[in-house]
Amino acid sequence: MQFRAVLFDLDGTLLDTLEDLADSMNVVLARRGHPEHPVDEYRFFVGQGISEMCRVTLPETQRDEATVAAAVEEMRTEYGRRWADKTGPYPGVPELLERLVAHEVPLAVFSNKPHDFTVMTVERFLAEVPFRQVLGVGDDVPGKPDPTAPLRIADELGVQPAEVCYLGDTANDMRTAVAAGMFPVGARWGFRPDEELLASGARWLLTRPEELLGILG
């Protein structure tokens, strides 16, 4: 297999952001008098955007549109206070990125995080990596699994979608890659189990980041 570019998910793929996300959301829940959730449960709450995370962590009786919208604003504030407290690259990720850069492989990031947080996080933890594009969800960027953003990135990189290896860690990532006509690869070190990745279209699963080099050829 020959690929000309790599598109990465961010949370659960390049960076372990779970504790900062969980801590922030639990502050919102506690302030509202709702039960908090164990950090590990957030593996199944994240990945579909901040609105969905707020919705599923709130009690079922508190999931009306207005309450979710208010929780989203509170979550943005709390996450803005601690987004860098416990976050960092997964072992092997910096080395993988360094080797890809050395081989002049075009790299990009697309996250279901809001765009501002996506850019801030990449600039803080992966500043040395010359990503050609870094995108998060915004007014003109629909979230996963909509393929609009990945297709836009492929076009800006000057490659065909089929020439892009898409590495992510959730069903949403795999579905996005399939919808965009890219090659879906699952990161087993991330937030979701193998079964979910395979059922959602993963063509390959990686146990360690450096294994991606074997796929790229």
Describe the structure.
With 217 residues, the chain is α/β, with parallel strands linked by helices. It folds into two domains: 5-16 and 87-216, HAD superfamily/HAD-like (Rossmann fold), CATH 3.40.50; 18-82. Helices cover 42% and strands 16% of the residues. It is built from nine helices and eight strands. It has a six-stranded parallel sheet, sandwiched between helices. It has a two-stranded antiparallel ribbon with strand order 2-3. α1 (18-31) packs across α3 and α2 (50-57) crosses α3 (65-82). The termini are close together. The model has no long low-confidence stretch (mean pLDDT 96).
Short description:
The chain is α/β, with parallel strands linked by helices.
Order of helices and strands: EEHHHEHEHEHEHEHEH
- Name the CATH homologous superfamily of the largest domain: HAD superfamily/HAD-like
The top level CATH class name of the largest domain? Alpha Beta
CATH topology of the largest domain: Rossmann fold
Poorly predicted regions: none
Helix tally?
9
Share of helix among residues? 40-55%
